[in-house]
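User: My instructor asked us to take a sequence, write out its structure as tokens, and then describe one feature of it. I'm not sure where to start. Here is the sequence I was given:
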Amino acid sequence: MEIILTALVGVGIGILIHKLLANQSGQSAAKVAKEIKASAEKDAENIIKEGELRAKEELIRSRDEFETSTRERRKELQDYEKRLNERENTIERKNDLVENRLEEVVRREKNCDGRESALSARQNELDELIKKQTVQLEGIAMMTRDQARVQLMQKLEHELANERGTLIRRFVDEMKHKCKREAQKYIIEAMQRCAGECAHERTTATVSLPSDDMKGRIIGREGRNIRVFEAETGVNVLIDDTPSAVVITCFEPKRLEIARLAMEKLVSDGRIHPTRVEEVVEWARNEIDSETVKAGEDAVHELQIAGIPPQVVEVLGRLKFRYSYSQNVLQHSIEVAKLMAVIAAELGLNVERAKRMGLLHDIGKVLEHEIEGPHALSGREFLKRAGEDPEILNGVGCHHGDLPAETPLAAMVSVCDALSASRPGARSETNEFYIKRLEELEAIGNSFRGVESCYAVQAGREIRIIVDPGKVTENNAYALSRDMVKRIESEMQYPGQIKVCVIRETRSIEYAK
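Assistant: Let's start with the prediction itself. The structure tokens for your sequence are:
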């Protein structure tokens, strides 16, 4: 259409030019116009022919595209029809299978109905037979079914009561053993909150021997006696050229005292073998526990404080084996109580409450693994459970600024605590980092799964790990030692090297009754 319009415009232009030339130049102009008109008409014809040719080409191209699209769509429809036919065939086959299965189910249902009738008749016969046998048995036993049931239930109840008592007793024994072991574990794992000076009298104990022959008996065949002793107590026993004496070393005072008592008992008794060592160590632990209670009672008696519950006295006595920067925590608590009493008397305050508050202010230092939080708050929580007075609780909880002081006595606790700790010669920070390194070493050992107990010995050059053989296999023990070495190397700084010794011992224990 555009080509035709262009041609018509050209013709019009030619006619216009022709008229103009005719008016201007006469015949010459008419001739030129005629030529221009003829040229324009020729151009118009060419343009029209070219447009027609292009239109035909466009029509052919559109027809080809339509045919191609039609063929592709026809192919798709044929494929879809083929899939529909296949699906229809599949559905017909499945329908045939379902019909066959349904026929089989109907046939089986009929057979089941027949068998059910036969079983019902058989059940009736069995019921009649059971009734006859029951009547005969009642006649033979000279008692009815209800009487026999009652007698049988009474007998079973008696037997079950005995069995239940046996199970309960065994369970209680196992729980007691487990509780003692867990308590021992907590005590061993609880390291000093503020480590003290590594003095000789606090880290070593010397046990005299009747003769040097006793050293061989302590060591035992292939060293089994001394290994059991060190594993049970968590100390290091030094048997050297010192005549008639052995040296026990440990940085934890309670373990050192238990080992000293146990060694003295073994030497005086003379019978030294692994089982006896375990028995004596258990006896020593009980003695130390008794001594712990006595230490708490002595502290209360020395200060003449009344009304402290027994469980608080026992926990208070455990402070005897705690040191803060080489200052004994129990002696520190007694000193704070005396300072509180003096100042309270000067200020006209309640002296009895002042001594009670000063004595109990650091009791949380032995509860760090039992109650979460700072020792001031953990001690306050423990005393609250024991029914302590709210004023005492506030004094215990605020002496390190964790809580605001609500009374003058509560404010005095922090003052007396600082006086006792800062007096000349009260504390020493020598070797503090050494003790902290030992604490960190045992903490890493106890963090692994399957570890029952962990002891740092040989002045921190060796760590002994006792694992539960039910949770840690022999292969896992090797992997455990390797993982522990990597953990120590990545998290700690220490001189020299640290030996990691994983001990896995299997015991089979039964009781003849």
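For the description part of your assignment, you could build on this observation: Residues 183-201 have pLDDT under 50 and may be disordered. Try explaining in your own words what that tells you about the chain.
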